Amino acid sequence: MVLKKQKHKSLGQTKRKLITDVDPKSPISEQYRTIRTNILFSAVDRDIQSLLITSAGPGEGKSTTAANLAIVFAQQGKDVLLVDADMRKPTMHYTFNFTNTIGLTNVLAKQKSISAAVKETDIQNLSVLLSGPIPPNPAELLGSRVMAEFLQEACRLYDLVIFDTPPVLAVTDAQVLANQCDGTVFVVNSGQTEVDSAVKAKELLQAAKAKLLGVVLNNRKIKETNHYYYYGNK
């Protein structure tokens, strides 16, 4: 899937690039809806209730992709929970203008229930679970029994749970969580992500038995006459 570079001047302000919310009729919003459709078609023989979004390295657009995908699924009528599982460099509290005092780490530590930790957004059908306080052992938490219990409970409460995770090549967190989720979407940034890095990240995800649904090619500069859409499977 190619996301055409966009010039909407309001992006990156109070809502970080949530174009699917602020400009749902834009070409880029339509492309996010195309990604949504492709995700659904990629798993016609099974329901996808948990989706992991990651990238090879930092700054490639995975968090923006996760947030906008959560919005377009919510706009479809699904009850969506967006989880900031990047417990090393969380960003969703900036994206949705919340204070990151309570979140996933509190739930995994049994300090809060899911319902007590989740924050409702002003977008219909979309809730957010922030990362919470940064723990000393994120990978261990994500691979723990309590994380598996959290995922089971979250999937019972919501139609779709979307996880924003750290980059694959930086730490093992995404690999640890990927094999627990129904699908993984890999984000690469045109002109930034090196081919070797993307290949290595893909191999690590496959070794972790991630169910790789496809690749989002982000920030590709294309001409108006070119095709807007590309969704690369594995």
What does this structure look like?
By secondary structure, the chain is an alpha/beta fold. 35% of the residues lie in helices and 18% in strands. The protein contains 10 helices and 8 strands. The chain has helices spanning 19-22, 27-41, 62-75, 92-95, 104-108, 114-117, 138-142, 145-157, 173-178, 195-207, and strands at residues 2-4, 50-55, 80-84, 119-120, 126-129, 160-164, 183-189, 212-220. The chain has an 8-stranded mixed sheet with strand order 1-8-7-2-6-3-5-4, sandwiched between helices. A hairpin with a 5-residue loop joins strand 4 and strand 5 (126-129). Helix 2 (27-41) packs across helix 3 (62-75). The radius of gyration is 16 Å and the shape is globular. Residues 4-14 and 224-234 have low confidence and may be disordered.
What is the topological layout?
Layout: E1 2-4, H1 19-22, H2 27-41, E2 50-55, H3 62-75, E3 80-84, H4 92-95, H5 104-108, H6 114-117, E4 119-120, E5 126-129, H7 138-142, H8 145-157, E6 160-164, H9 173-178, E7 183-189, H10 195-207, E8 212-220
What distinguishing features does this structure have?
234 residues, alpha/beta, 10 helices, 8 strands, 18% strand, disordered C terminus
Brief digest:
The protein has 234 residues and is α/β, with parallel strands linked by helices. It is built from 10 helices and 8 strands.
